[in-house]
Amino acid sequence: MELFPIPSETYKLGFIGAGKMAESIASGVVRSGVLPPSRIITSHSNPVRRDAFESFGVTLLPRNEDVIKDSDVVIFSLKPQVVKGVLLQLKPLLTKKKLLVSVAAGVKLKDLEECADQSRFIRVMPNTPSAVGEAASVMSLGGSATEEDADLIAQLFGSIGKIWRADEKFFDAVTGLSGSGPAYIFLAIEALADGGVAAGLPRELALGLASQTVLGAASMAAKTGKHPGQLKDDVASPGGTTIAGIHELEKGCFRGTLMNAVIAASKRSKELSQS
Ligand SMILES: NC(=O)c1ccc[n+]([C@@H]2O[C@H](COP(=O)([O-])OP(=O)(O)OC[C@H]3O[C@@H](n4cnc5c(N)ncnc54)[C@H](OP(=O)(O)O)[C@@H]3O)[C@@H](O)[C@H]2O)c1
């Protein structure tokens, strides 16, 4: 069956599930100018959620059905345990003219496609820094999604951070790394700040320095194109302070512990998506 291209200059974007992730994506899309708010719609009965979207110009419609009818691209931003039931309910409206997207963690394309009875579907795994425009997202394409569909989704999610494309078989590993990774780094920031306090710094200064140090190091790793091992070597002078600190991290199995954390979270993601 021939697929109609999504009209890139005029398409409307709908969200089913007007929660935190939908708000991050919609506000990022509007802020970056990828779409004007007049082309974004959603639905929610809770006035607090409605206000959150209306504050940046998104239109609220009465029902999910109205959102689907009026959208060319629909992002299902629902909790994993809810998404399949909602797809089944809305199935009669989910024609192949529409590009469907799910951000629900752990829900496979096979199941999404089966519930929607169509495979013009893209699964995206974003992470919580989407709230500040720094998401690390990965997408995988369903059976009928086209290259143009992928470009459109890359543009939408590019407005809330960076997005990569990968085979769906990698999604548990993606969950273990970028999905759970922000929590590992929050722990690291807290521990760095505690170290600063232990070494005599006031708490507020220690926390500020710890956060900015992680931000700066991440920015250098992402922007210089240098291998992180090279960046580490560049700042570890012979007999200096940094190599003394690195020695302690190595004694505490810092790298092995982080690797194990990613592997453990990936395994857990696999277990949860099979249950
Ligand atoms: N937040 C993140 O950073 C993040 C990262 C990666 C993946 N995800 C995925 O993104 C999805 C959404 O997460 P979230 O953090 O945005 O959760 P959320 O804030 O709870 O958003 C889900 C929204 O869906 C609404 N909803 C529930 N049932 C509905 C229905 N039948 N029709 C329409 N709306 C309905 C909920 O309303 P009520 O609150 O009134 O029930 C809520 O507003 C999840 O699957 C999660 O795995 C989130």
Automatic annotation (TrEMBL):
Residues 168-272 form the Pyrroline-5-carboxylate reductase dimerisation domain. It catalyses: L-proline + NADP(+) = (S)-1-pyrroline-5-carboxylate + NADPH + 2 H(+); L-proline + NAD(+) = (S)-1-pyrroline-5-carboxylate + NADH + 2 H(+). GO terms for molecular function: pyrroline-5-carboxylate reductase activity. InterPro entries: 6-PGluconate_DH-like_C_sf, NAD(P)-bd_dom_sf, P5C_Rdtase_cat_N, P5CR-like_CS, P5CR_dimer, Pyrroline-COOH_reductase. It is an enzyme of class 1 (oxidoreductase). One of its GO terms (biological process) is amino acid biosynthetic process. It comes from the Eukaryota. It is found in: Cytoplasm. One of its GO terms (cellular component) is cytoplasm. NADP(+) binds at I16, G17, A18, G19, K20, M21. Pathway: Amino-acid biosynthesis; L-proline biosynthesis; L-proline from L-glutamate 5-semialdehyde: step 1/1. Keywords: Amino-acid biosynthesis, Cytoplasm, NADP, Oxidoreductase, Proline biosynthesis. Its EC number is 1.5.1.2. The keyword Oxidoreductase applies. NADPH binds at N64. Pfam families: F420_oxidored, P5CR_dimer. Residues 12-106 form the Pyrroline-5-carboxylate reductase catalytic N-terminal domain. Belongs to the pyrroline-5-carboxylate reductase family. This is Pyrroline-5-carboxylate reductase. It comes from Juglans regia. The lineage of its organism: Eukaryota, Viridiplantae, Streptophyta, Embryophyta, Tracheophyta.
